[in-house]
Design goal:
448 residues, mainly alpha, Growth Hormone, Chain: A, 2 domains, globular, 19 helices
Length: 448
Amino acid sequence: MPNPESAAAPKLRLTPLEWLICAVAAVGFLFDTYELLMLPLVGPPALAELLGVKPGSPEMNVWMGRLFYVPAIFGAAFGLLGGWLTDRFGRRRVLVASILLYAGGALASAFVTSPGQLLALRCVVFVGVCVEFVAGTAWLAELFTDPTRREKVLGYTQAFSSLGGLLVAWIYGLAVHNADALPAIAGGHSAWRYTLVSGLIPALPLLIVRPWLPESPAWRARKEAGTLSRPRLSELFSPQLMRTTIVTTILVAASYALAFGAIQQATRIVPGLADVHSLARPAQQQVVAATQKLQEVGGLLGRIALAILAVRIASRRRLLRVFQIPALVVFPLLFWNAMGLESGAFRWGLFLCGFVAIAQFSFWGNYLPRVYPTHLRGTGESFAANIGGRLLGTSAAWISVNLANQLTAASPAAALAKASAIVAVTAAVIGIVASFALPEPRQADLPS
């Protein structure tokens, strides 16, 4: 398969093959988020049916905690293995396998009969998602060799991630309204089961277009020449790469902590706002949904802004701080003062938080491929994204919840809002400080 782009003569327009490559990557990134944000929607009704308990009961809370955190641990561990497999067996092969894995896991989840089965299959889904991001960014970075086009392609395809939350909310709404008209699953017409089935969507076109997808030319050339070194995890901590590995892991963890330690807590804070607390529960959920949608729009615009600025700001440190410094301001202002705000003001504040925090996720998709050599690119990306992001960064959600239990406040929502502000400020400060040690890529081209 020919290289879809010549480094010597970059074209202004994408070829049909390049459009296909971008489409596959965009769908993969979109459904990464789709699969992850499916849980807050389907988890409570699924557990209510499988356990026979009411929402908010202690048993349901225990299982929701397990469904959130146990898959993250598995995702971090096996995602790291997936990065190694990407370097060992090729970007395209692992990319395709990871999408099929999380799509198949989501489909199988629709037929579970116990919470234990649901937990096991959520682990499968999470592993697929963690591997797909690493394989997808390495694949795109090596297929588009012109630096400017590479930055744009990585930026705009990753922007589709923010559509995942909007799409899954829409699909779930359709399932709720049309469940009775759909074929029965496991003897019933539960909307959460149909929503899980929709996780199969990305696998269907992938099976059709797979024969036309090229392998990374850089990886394939080294493999065929016999010069592709076997990836070793220990190389990440060699004198040449130790600083890069440690600093990027800390910074990715800080980026994820903003999202999980604060933004993801908003759905539990909004019902406690003064103008929402007195509403009936269905009306409260409508306000929560509207807030969540606006936050997703903010994240989408943040990713687009990153894609635009990535080719205009040469320094990667400066580019990252464009989003880090505002985060240090907007997060504490919003969450520390949340209980004094009306829901509309809180909603727009969360929009700004999504803009500055989610853009940082796209930054790492652009940056990480530029600092690791070909034979170690997937392994290096995976360590930062999965150990830093999935394992350390997502633990901020656990920290916020437990910190809220130690704070004195007028209501549980107020305590959680203050805890989220503290965690967010801590993450933002750590990120800004660590950014001064972030290595600047030595060249625009990818290291070989």
